[in-house]
Amino acid sequence: MKLKNTLSAAAIGLASIGSHAMAADSAEPIVIPTHNWSSQVVMAYVIGGIFESLGDTVEYVPADSQAVYEAIRIGDVTISHEVWQSTFGASFYNAMAKGGIIDAGTHSAATLEEMGVPQYVIDDNLCPGLPNWEALKNCPEVFATADSEGKGRWLEGPQSWHGDLMPIRLEALGLGDLYTVKFAGGADAIWAELASAKKEGRGIITFNWTPNFTDAEGFAFIEFPAYTDGCRVADGGDGACGSPKGWLKKAANYKFPKTHPAAYSAFSKLDFSSTDIGQMAALVDIDGMSHQDAAAKWLADHEDVWKPFVE
Amino acid sequence: MHRRVPDMGTNFFTKHRKLSQFVILLIAFFALVILVKPNEANVLWRFPSLLASLPGIINDFAENLMFNWFPIQVYDPHIEEYEEVALLREVTRGFSRGVLFMIEFIREVLIGGVKTIVAFTSWEFVRENPWAAWPALPWTVVSGGAVILGYALNGRNLALLAGAATVYISVFGQWHPAMETLSFVLVAAPVSVLLGLLFGILSYKSHAVEVALAPFLNIAQTMPHFSYLVPVTVFFGLGDHAGAIATIIFATPPMIRLTLLGLKKVPVEVVEAGLMNGSNDKQILFKVLVPTARRDILIGVNQVIMQCLAMAVIASFIGAKGLGFNLLLALNQLRIGQALELGICIVLIAVVLDKLSLAYANKQTDYFADLSFAQRHKYALVFAVFFVGCIAVALLGQLIFQDGINYLYLIPHNKGITTELFWQSGVDWMVDNWYAGLQGFNRGLIVNVLQPMKNAYLAMPVSATFLLVMGTGCIIGGIRSALIVGGLLLFIALTEWWDRALITMYMASFSVIISVTFGLIVGSICAQYTFASKAALLACDTLQTFPSFIYLIPVIMLFGVTDTSVLIAVIIYATIPAVRYTIEGIRNVPPSLKEAGMMSGATAFQRWVKIDLPLAFPHIMLGVNQTVIFALFMVIIGAMIGTDDLGQYILKALSDKQGIGNGLMLGLCVAFIGLAVDHLINTWAAQRKNALGLS
Q: What is this structure's pTM?
């Protein structure tokens, strides 16, 4: 058995991997989901490349980023490598409560998901005092839109991301008379509004996160009163606080450790920093490479980062 | 020639009986709106949400069915343990594997792979035998095959079309995703056609089947596809097969409808002629009925192909690979130029498949020709020669393009030529130059029209809504109609989403009014000229398969995340059937009547108002009907821009705990709005048809 596997590893032409690690990995493909944003797709191919270097077979399947957790739970998809706390936390824990999905550790990338403004809003001094939130009291008109009835508008993600968190926060901070929340349908709508606002140099407050491709052009998150445990309404607080530093988790189907022990070991050790994620996204969003090429280039250039995961 | 002079007093009411009934109804409606004050406890204002627990029940039922009931022991060799799996899940997963196998098989013939080999051996076998992989066909072979097929079926024009389309797809670097999409359509479309034929024939043979099938067809055609995505993934899993199954659910109903319609139109004499010639049941069906009903069945096939490609993007939400997924990815990067090129590929595949299937069905077998083997198989022989030639060329290419890309074999994804920059700068130019000018319009529309209209809808007491809708039903179709539309609305009113449904109705009715007005005018003008009609119908076909997601982005850039953006997207899409049916209706008005009009000295305008429109009215009403359905669909997709109607909740159901139940219930709410309107319009159109002696 061991000999056979060693032979097959040689046959496929894979180098430098200890055969002991892959001795038990099933030949069934590991199914990696791809969603509709660059860093996630590049990372999917990067992780796929790492698994392939272990001699595993990999398959990519497009999936909706919310519906994917149900699919992992049932076993149609093996892993998810970008579970953002505030956007997918609910879907992830809902699936976990039903059973079948496991928490495979956390990336060290420090994430923040918060309302903010493009850097030029601050550079052009459109609303003096930003990014401190108190500055918002003096310039709602800078952020007014056609349908905001003269108030400033906060462009929030779809309601499925954080429910009424932002409307509650507006009220709690005493900004309710000056600002109103509009729920966008998805990330695409937010990017389209950001691009359009940038052309006009007009003010816009929108929900965004980091690491993200918007980091390259500069995006300033508003500094709200610091998050403390229990400050949110759901936790018994008054809601007058910003977002916590968030986590970026990895999830896997509960059978994955048994079917592909070597791959699972690598996946659980897998840990990307904000810089890594930024580099992956930049190869596509800025250098215009295809996602596969970007992943191949990143793997070739950063062996020092990922080799430790497979050892 | 002696006319009775009636009493003037009764004359108005008897002549305009329905109109006066309607006026009285409106007065009563407004009285209720004024009298009933907003108060959640008042039943006249809002019904209690008695059905609030139904989504949970549906959800539990589906969960139990898939995970708990009828458990069987299944051995999982990978974890070397027995697991309890619900019987139904094993059944649906078996079905999924079958569908997936077909898709993978076609896909691997086109672009290579290992899964087909795996299906007959195992993943271990493939891992240990690297030679066991199927190679991709050179794109020139597929392209040439399409040209030869086009020529064989319908001569030079179709060959040129097929050639141009495949070369476009390849040269623009979209070969790989296009073949992925094609392989999934090549399974979904034939299955939909066969299922459609089967159920169409069954309902023709048995009235009971027809009656039993009717509600399912109605709901499947009006329910937004977003709402059954989660149930499909739970029942069938995630992947190309799930996409294909969702597509089949979406594409089969029109095929059933049109098959039944076609069969019902077959004259009795034709069947009798068949019987007299001694045909048995089977021969009657396949040699007499189906060929005679061919026209309608072919419209069904056309619809299936259009629907399949229209689903290409939505199907990628649940795992279909190919153009749709790449399109979403491009849009998320705001690469509208790339998305547009992908969208054109989808349209091209739709057009080529449609023309090929049409040509195939219209090809007559020549039973009397006495041909040699070479003559009978000349196209196959040409293809065989071509096949060998292309592979030789591809191998030659290997030598020419030593390190780089072998353009004569496969052009990798996004490595072809691109016009992206051109489109991108076009969009940039548009935003730069139009944005400021459009803001005044946008603000005026929202402040003066949309907000007041939305508030008016929300300020309607539920009793007033029911009075208006059921009263209209009663005037148009009597008590029966009133009960049907009332029942449909009651379902929605008893859920907790009535206010959301009102917002959906506001957006749908606003866009239907604009679309129908625009469609009537443009359709009527185009219908006057043969060339303009053809061009307009072609534009309709193109727009129907062109993924609407692409124009959502520029629209958001110009109008922001507002109702204006949603409504513009809805109007673009919903105008398609309004134009199409108006053109068809007016062009089908008998020329003799038009001439009679002209001889009586009618001006062009008089002819339009007095002859064209009244005679085309029933057909145009079918167009209005379709406009309503299209508008509802697009309002739901408008949730991707940002709305607060039923669509937003359907989108939210993708991540809900009770996703299956909520999604299906919300889908039913949308379907029931559509069905209520559908019922009223159909009843009215049928009466007009009778009055005009058209039926």
A: 0.88
Phi, psi of B51 (to 5 degrees): -95, 10
A7 contacts in chain B (CB < 8 Å): 128
Bridge partners of residue B81, in order along the sequence:
B76
Query: What's the CA gap between A282 and A213, in Å, rounded?
Result: 7
Answer whether A2-110+247-310 and A112-235 agree in fold.
yes
- Domains in chain B: ranges and CATH: 88-128 (no CATH), 436-460+498-692 (1.10.3720.10)
CATH top class, domain A112-235: alpha beta
Query: Which chain A residue's Cα is nearest to B233?
Result: A71
* Domains of chain A, residue spans: 2-110+247-310, 112-235
Best A74, A84, A285 residue to mutate vs chain B (most B CBs within 10 Å)? A74
CB atoms within 10 A of CB B521: 13
A56 CB within 8 Å of a chain B CB: no
Q: Which of residues 339-378 of B touch A (CB under 8 A)?
A: none
C-beta separation of A310 from A53 below 8 A: yes
Q: Which chain B residue shows the shortest CA-CA distance from A155?
A: B561
Query: Cα separation of A219 and B345, whole Å?
Result: 36
A200 vs B: CB within 8 A: yes
8 Å CB contact of A158 and B642 = yes
CA pair distance B257, B248, nearest whole angstrom = 15
Residue B379 near residue B148 (C-beta atoms within 8 A)? yes
Pick among A84, A93, A145, A253 to test the B interface (most B CBs inside 10 A): A145
Q: Which of A94, A195, A284 has the CB atom closest to B657's CB atom?
A: A94
CB A118, CB A198: distance < 8 Å: yes
* CATH class of domain segment(s) A2-110+247-310: alpha beta
Per DSSP, which regions of B439-478 are E strands?
none
* Predicted confidence pLDDT, tens digits, chain A (311 residues): 344 444 444 444 433 343 444 447 888 899 999 987 888 999 999 999 999 999 899 999 988 888 899 889 988 899 999 999 877 888 899 889 988 999 999 999 888 889 999 999 999 999 999 899 999 999 999 999 888 888 999 999 888 788 888 999 999 999 989 999 999 988 889 999 998 899 888 899 999 988 888 888 889 999 999 988 888 887 788 888 888 888 999 999 999 999 999 999 999 999 999 889 888 888 888 788 889 999 999 999 999 999 999 88
Neighbour tally for B617: CB within 10 Å: 18
**CA–CA distance, B417 with B414 (Å, rounded to integer):** 8
Contacts of B641 in chain A (CB under 8 A): 184-185, 189
C-alpha distances out from residue B199 to A181, B136, B243, B256, B357, Å: 49, 37, 22, 6, 20
Residues 73-102 of B with CB under 8 A from A: 76, 78-79
The DSSP line for A171-224 is HHTT-TTTEEEEE-SSHHHHHHHHHHHHHHT---EEEEEESSGGGTT-EEE-BP
Which of A62, A159, A187 lies nearest to residue B320, judging by beta carbons? A62
CA distance B242 to B248: 10
CA distances to A293, B162, B550 from B175, rounded to whole Å, are: 17, 14, 20
CB–CB contact A259 B78 (8 Å): yes
- Over its C-alpha atoms, chain A yields an Rg (Å, rounded) of 22
Distances (CA, A) of A71 to A47, A143, A273, B237: 19, 40, 27, 7
Q: Do B655 and A187 touch (CB under 8 A)?
A: no
Angle at B670 between CA B665 and CA B675, to 5 degrees: 115
Whether B298 contacts B255, CB under 8 Å: no
Contact B301, B193 (CB under 8 A): yes
Cβ contact, residue pair B123, A57, below 8 Å: yes
